[in-house]
Amino acid sequence: MYLCYVDESGTSDIPGNSSHFILAGLSIPIWNWKSCDQEIDRIKRRYDLCEAEIHIAWILRPYLEQTKISDFDKLNYVQRRSAVEAYRKSEILRLQRSKKPKLLKQTKKNFQKTNSYIHLTYMERKKFIFDVANAISKWRDARLFAECVDKVFFDPVKAGKPIDEQAFEQLVSRFEQFLQLTGTDASHQNGLIIHDHNQTVSRKLTDMMKRFHQTGTLWTSIEKIIETPLFVDSQLTSMVQIADVCAYALRRYLENNEEELFDLIFSRADRKDGKVVGVRHFTNLSCSCKICRAHRKV
Ligand SMILES: [Zn+2]
Question: CA–CA separation, 3 vs 24, rounded Å?
């Protein structure tokens, strides 16, 4: 049996604040689950992040206050945390006095979302994410599936469905096809989708999956994937946080040409006869990015 952890990056709204919407799933066989989960825990422990969620977009932001604390990198973790917290407290008080409720609300949110990581310098946070991606790249039985939609080229009317639904249908189809081609022992072939819990999509994806079980997707019947997606709290489940890292790495490569994380993650893309079949970049035909080149390769 295989578990496929799914998460998204970017917004499916058009135009929204990102040019791409990415839905990514990382599949691992259940007999590797424990060692993968433990490896991520070990990496987290090295950076004193045991209780923290790996939410990459918040981890990799510049934290302005760190640059304002002298010799920040020479302090130990406890001293750094205390210095940042003191700075943040005074910043909140300042904003409360300045009567800018919108900015105050946004700042409070930023502080809350990044609080778990403030004891790490930017370089350390980058290294942490690199260590996680590097670990994933070595999981030989892991397979990456993803639909990367360039929203400029997506026409919901022509597609007959919104971006997020189209992406989910593609992902389910590719995971199903992988399962159908993998192994001969029946117990090896089933799959379960595990999705980051998200109130707005859980009902929709559950209904879609029920429909796929009855009538198939546009590309395949569903025989190997069981049940509707299992929704879990990403704060509590390291492995679903890994899907966030995968989706982020794909988006940052396509939008900003950042290759370091992408190359590690993309090495796990599902391939058949040397051609990448698990990951697709939905864009113009002339795109020559690494995904399109690997997808076209014959
Ligand atoms: Zn491309």
Answer: 13
293 Cα: distance to centroid of ligand 1 (angstroms): 7
- How far does the centroid of ligand 1 lie from the alpha carbon of residue 292, in Å? 4
How far is Cα 47 from Cα 223, in angstroms, rounded to an integer?
42
Residue 252 Cα to ligand 1 midpoint, Å, equals 13
Query: Smallest Cα–Cα separation from 235: which of 34, 55, 108?
Result: 55
Residue 111 located in a structural domain: yes
Rounded distance, CA 206 to CA 209, Å?
5
Helices (H), the chain: 30-46, 56-59, 64-68, 77-98, 101-114, 122-137, 156-159, 163-181, 199-215, 238-256, 260-266, 290-296
Q: How far is the CA of 96 from the centre of ligand 1 (A)?
A: 46
pLDDT given for residue 156 in this prediction: 85
Compute the distance from residue 131 Cα to the ligand 1 centre, in Å: 26
C-alpha to C-alpha distance for 221 and 189, rounded to whole angstroms: 15
Residues 217, 105 share a domain: no
Direct distance between the N- and C-terminal alpha carbons of the chain, in angstroms, rounded to an integer: 30
290: exposed, middle or buried (Cβ count in 10 Å: 0-12, 13-18, 19+): middle
Q: State both tokens at 134.
A: 């590097």
Residues in the chain predicted with pLDDT less than 70, given as ranges, are 183-188, 297-298
Task: Indicate which CATH number applies to the domain containing 226.
Answer: 3.30.420
Kindly state whether residue 53 falls inside one of the protein's structural domains: no
Question: 275 CA distance to ligand 1 centroid (A)?
Answer: 14
pTM of the model: 0.94
Question: How remote is the CA of residue 19 from the centroid of ligand 1, in Å?
Answer: 13
